[in-house]
Here is the input.
Amino acid sequence: MTAPAGVGVSLGDFSVDDLETSRREFRQQLFDAGFLVPTGVDGLYLRDERFEQIARAIDAVVSRSCAGEVGRTYHFPLVMARSVLEATDYVRSFPQLAGIVNSFDGGDREHRRLLGAIDKDGDWPQLMAPTDLGLCSAACHPLYPPQQGRLPARGRVVEVYGQVFRHEPSVDPARMQVFRQHEVVYLGDADGARHHRDRWVERGLEIHHRLRLDIEAEIANDPFFGRTGEVLAAGQRAEVLKVELVCPICSFDEPTAITSANCHLDHFGAAFGIETSDGDVAHSACVGFGIERIALALLHTHGLEPSRWPAAVRDSLAW
Amino acid sequence: MTAPAGVGVSLGDFSVDDLETSRREFRQQLFDAGFLVPTGVDGLYLRDERFEQIARAIDAVVSRSCAGEVGRTYHFPLVMARSVLEATDYVRSFPQLAGIVNSFDGGDREHRRLLGAIDKDGDWPQLMAPTDLGLCSAACHPLYPPQQGRLPARGRVVEVYGQVFRHEPSVDPARMQVFRQHEVVYLGDADGARHHRDRWVERGLEIHHRLRLDIEAEIANDPFFGRTGEVLAAGQRAEVLKVELVCPICSFDEPTAITSANCHLDHFGAAFGIETSDGDVAHSACVGFGIERIALALLHTHGLEPSRWPAAVRDSLAW
Here is the structure.
């Protein structure tokens, strides 16, 4: 949603100007309290130890909630093979959010040109060449290539601590360009995938209720690019593939998705050659907890002094 | 060090071929045991929960060792403002290791061209444009911009949990393209910086001795690019600015730097406008513990079953 400068678009009793002001104010409060440190780039922040304590506690809540049923737990770096951006179709559907890594591959002569560009007008990035690396587009994406082949009869459930990049600079502290997603991913048949997704919508609601967050489940769609994207988004909503758990952070009129649960149908199974034990193309589903967003929802809801959060919340965080 | 294919360069009794074989073998052992999962890109791996347990234990050792003296503790994302790559001179000196982030900034028309390039020959990365983001070049680099201004009289000591990117694909599992550096950084006057560095060389040796690693301190230099770089590297060695703590991982003849302690002189103070309480340009120094490398040194030295590591090592890790 965009509005011309100075023109508020009505959102019920709220305006876009109010929303922007409310987001800037909350971000400034986080800066003043030291939880986040500005870097000069919107959506990119240094975090202090207290913010990380909250993040670690949320991660532990998620891990405990899936401990009985996951086979393996993996931790992913922010960088992945660039080929995953193609195979998942991410760069087709969300090129505006995707990131690839460029570096320098020249010799002494090109190096002199690079130094010249740095000195002259700072326009050196055009002299860097694409590498085979991209930035992780969703926590579960790097998981799929090693799953190639046949799954066990009951499918597979995997826990993923991932880091995600989205190129979407914003003053909204809840819209970071780099953030953590803690996922529980199912690979198996279609029924198993739908069941996993539905069960984790319920379980996600329970978890956030225990954290005393004002949470609701909503049917949602991804921000597919362009005109073709509108069709894809409408299809995603019509099939109820994506459910977001939303919570007011800076406005009750436009709550923020802090967790989402998604059915991928056989999209990743087909792209990465993953099969059920019967030899069908595997389906998959995941729930992704947005660690930074949940931390911000807690700070916004319960205040900037975690030692004074309600006892029930601190209990749920095992503090 | 490079050698033509099939030609071993003698390193004492060891050859480059032997070294490469030894590195591939250790990496395969790590894959087979599940600590690391291959991604198809050398130097880029998924990590399992047991590897992370080791990493967390090492992080905790470092945190305990500096707990009494650090002012603040920060956690940094892998992405930083691209301007930091310029201000630190990193992209001048190490362009071959640096990474910048490109994304898509076109409209529907350019999107069609992008889709065409993906379908045709996969040469779509050239259609992505530079953003204002770069990948973190050293854990402490994002720390300096917010330090602009005058320091307290005793200087400032900061603990940093950082993530670093280096574009240097390698079969050596200890040479990852994305890794964690846990740093303790000093900002203040020249004497304080030298003292910090020297004290952390000693303390670093102690820490690694307690982990029963075969550690030694060596004067070192950074891999500055090109012919000018050779001069910079020689100067760095002559002034004894960089000391590396090295440990054999895949070869006794060419041990791996797993921790390093560095004097930066007034390089960052001048670049980022940081002053001592007397108004002089600030000096800085840091120690950086390479978390993945220390974990690999432990696995190589004590075996791939951490529950059977020597009691003294497990005690030091507070296990």
User: Anything to note?
Assistant: Chain B has a mean pLDDT of 93.
